[in-house]
Amino acid sequence: MLRTQGNFLQYRNPTPRRSSPEEQTFKGTAVTRCAFIIDRSLPQGLVANTAAILAMTLGMERPDLVGPDVRDADGNRHRGITSVVMPILAADAEGLKALRGRAASQEPAGLGLIGVTDAAQQAKSYDAYAARLAETPQEGLRYLGLCVHGPADLVRSLTGNLPLMK
Question: Which of 29, 64, 111, 132 lies in disulfide reach of 119, CB 3.0 to 4.6 Å?
C-alpha cells in the first residue's frame, strides 16, 4: 500500500514477512521513517560500502522492514526488498559526530541508531574491528555514516535540514 507523506512516498507492507507484533515496533514505537547520513567527503566506493554496512545491520535489527518475496510475470522469484523509504543524506565529519550525539540522546524515545566508524573501514577482520573499537574512546571515533530510524517526527527533526547525497 503506497501513501504520500510530505515529500516521501512510503510503502506500508500490509503483511510483513516473519514479524511478530513485538518486531513490528522498535522500543514500543512504530517505525515510520529511516535515513542514512554519510560523510560527503568519502570517495564513491566508500559511500557505497558504508551504505551497504548500514543497510545490512538495519536489516538484521529490523527484519520486518524487508517485504515479502515477489514473482515477476514469468513466475521468477525476486527476494523481498526494503518496505520503507531510505534516503541517503550527506553531512561532513563534524556534522555526523554532532548528529550521532543528538540521535543517541533520542534512543530512549524510540529512535534507532546505527553507526559505521573509521575503525570498521581500517580493519581487516571483524576481530580487528572489535579490538580497535574497544581501545578507542567515543570522542576518538570518526563516523563515516549513520542510520537513524524510528518515529517520523524524531527522524525528521534530526535529518530534515540535510541535503541528499549527490
Answer: 132
